[in-house]
Write a structure and sequence with these properties.
The strands form two sheets. An eight-stranded antiparallel β-sheet has the order 1-2-3-4-7-8-9-10. A three-stranded antiparallel β-sheet has the order 5-6-11, with no helix packed on it. The protein has helices spanning 41-61, 64-67, 80-92, 100-112, 188-201, 207-215, and strands at 21-27, 30-36, 119-123, 126-131, 135-138, 150-154, 158-165, 180-185, 221-228, 231-236, 239-242. It has a single domain, classed as ApbE-like domains (T-fold), CATH 3.10.520. The protein is built from six helices and eleven strands. The longest helix is centred in the first third of the chain and has 21 residues, at 41-61. The protein is globular. By secondary structure, it is of the alpha+beta class. This is UPF0280 family protein.
């Protein structure tokens, strides 16, 4: 719902978890790549439709929710996913639709945990991951020499939001020109919103440090990685790995 454009997800060829079953669910511009213990495509389609409809129906009541680029207060009767988007995007200082991909990934992912005790949902570079074992998440950064050369190590028994924003790759709106801004927190909704906020700040290599300093102030943030051409900024508790 963040854009009517569809971009081929070529980076998905790098997404591998041999112990899990992979499948894809597409409804309009929502394109989820999911890994779980078994094929849950029918269940995933049901939940994707459900949460898309909640957001779409709410937009009819509150059109500003979709259009604003600044924090927005939801109506009292807003569904939980909308309230979550408004809360976390407000914390990051951006509009609620900046968090929509992460929100869809997280809400669908949490529903699928009722059917599989490990679930990974990727939605346009934004990932909800609930894993029992250690996993590697690569950083796709377009034409940067760092692209798919580095990643973060997700510890076992983790449930995290790992979201990446780019000013150069993909259809999502960004006012910056970073190759990639990755944020890891306990919420994919917040990670998505904050990755957008930090991405908006990055206009040149000097802004990489400013982006790190801004993001690290939030206690919810576990990891930050910013890629700008050959420049790399890293802060956090997760292990950065070569791929």
């Amino acid at each position: 719902m963040s854009s009517d454009k569809y971009v081929e997800r070529t980076y998905r060829k790098y997404m591998k978890a041999l112990d899990l079953v992979s499948f894809q669910v597409k409804i309009q511009e929502s394109d989820l790549y999911i890994l779980a213990k078994k094929d849950l495509k029918k269940e995933a389609e049901k939940f994707l439709l459900f949460y898309r409809k909640q957001i779409e129906d709410y937009i009819l009541e509150d059109p500003v929710f979709k259009l604003t680029l600044t924090p927005h207060r939801p109506k009292d009767n807003a569904p939980e996913i909308v309230q979550d988007m408004c809360f976390w995007s407000g914390k990051a200082g951006v509009g609620p639709m900046a968090s929509v991909a992460g929100a869809i990934a997280e809400y669908v992912g949490k529903e699928l945990l009722n059917y599989s005790d490990e679930v990974i949902v990727e939605n346009g570079g934004d990932i909800f991951i609930s894993t029992k074992k250690e996993r590697k998440v690569a950083i796709f950064a377009g034409e940067s020499p760092w692209s798919n050369k580095i990643g973060v190590l997700i510890p076992p028994n983790s449930t995290l939001g790992v979201c990446t924003s780019s000013g150069k790759v993909g259809p999502s709106l960004s006012f910056g020109v970073a190759d990639a801004v990755m944020i890891v927190s306990n919420s994919a909704v917040f990670s998505d919103a904050l990755a957008t906020a930090v991405g908006n700040m990055i206009k040149n290599e000097k802004d990489v440090e400013l982006g790190i300093e801004f993001a690290r102030k939030f206690p919810e943030v576990i990891q930050i990685v910013i890629v700008f051409d050959k420049h790399l900024g890293v802060w956090g508790n997760l292990e950065l790995i070569k791929l």
